[in-house]
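Bug report (template v2)

What were you trying to do?
Predict the complex of my protein with S-adenosylmethionine.

What happened?
Run completed; filing so the output is reviewed.

Input:
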Amino acid sequence: MNKLIELINKLNNTQTLSIDEYEYLIKNRNEEAANLLKEYAIIKRKEHYSNSVFVRGLIEVSNICKNDCYYCGIRKSNLNCDRYRLTKDEILECCKDGYALGFRTFVLQGGEDGAFTDEWLCDLLKCIKGSYPDCAITLSLGERSRESYQKLYDSGADRYLLRHETADEIHYSKLHPSDLTLTNRIRCLNDLKDIGFQVGCGFMVGSPFQTTKNIAQDLKFIETFQPDMCGVGPFIPHKDTVFANEKSGDVDLCCYLLSIIRLIKPNILLPATTALGTVRNDGREKGILSGANVVMPNLSPLSVRKKYALYDGKISTGEESAQSLQKLKNSMQAIGYQVVVSRGDINKNNNTFSKE
Ligand code: SAM
């Protein structure tokens, strides 16, 4: 048996490889390996989630950000960015629309906006939880103190998405200004986990300066940290950033990594990201067929969708939007999957669904 196939079998059986082995798996990838990984990933995903695809309603609450991440379209030094912040009523209206459409998870994502004090957020969380006690709330609002995370958790937030971005310190420093550190990012992730949040980390595929070794380090980080969720999507350049002239990440590599991550943690909640659907029309379907089991349609008011531009060409009408849920359901059904109305929590009790 060749080494590539041997490593895939080892990963499938043990959920662990060394950094060198991950690197080998990425460097030497070919169609046969990609197909085998996909096959195993689909078996594992079905054991935990049958053919269900969970949906999360994404509410882009603000594009105001105090940070200056070199890759991000809403970085503070982008003076061309038309800034907005949703009001509490606007966010509640999004939840109301989303609930009626069948969403049972709301993801509140935004820049690190100073107006999001603990007091303001806790009041919002209590209102959402009061109106929709059967829904999960996911926050993705960046780095905060442990005390702040604790208050948000106590006010009803269930999950927190905070991509680690890259597990390599030097690479991290090439993507961020010096006031942002990998150490603090990891501190946040550890605090969130410790408090009791379901936590998501993740990284961009094809970010500038990323090496194969870096991706291997990311995989090892995921294996060690054992997140409940993992956001992995292609980097896409934004015209008003330092990386305007870089190229987008590769969809096939991204899907290959989704399969690997499914094998590292078979019950992980793994989104087929909007970025994947932006780089390729059928990107999200490809993601699901590679082992992903979550999609996050946009529930933000139409008037702000274009303003929350992390990268160029973000899809913001059509099947990515929550209002076109039926289209999404149809496209998932066409590839053998079913969008379900449920909170879609992580399946922790190893109970397996009957195989179709
Ligand atoms: N401020 C929060 C944070 O830092 O986690 C949440 C918002 S941030 C914009 C969400 C994610 O968008 C980041 O973690 C990053 O990986 C992703 N992102 C930003 N710019 C991107 C780009 N140019 N291409 C692809 N993904 C990007």
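What did the reviewer find?
The CA atoms of residues 5 and 85 lie 49 Å apart. The chain is about 45% helix and 10% strand.
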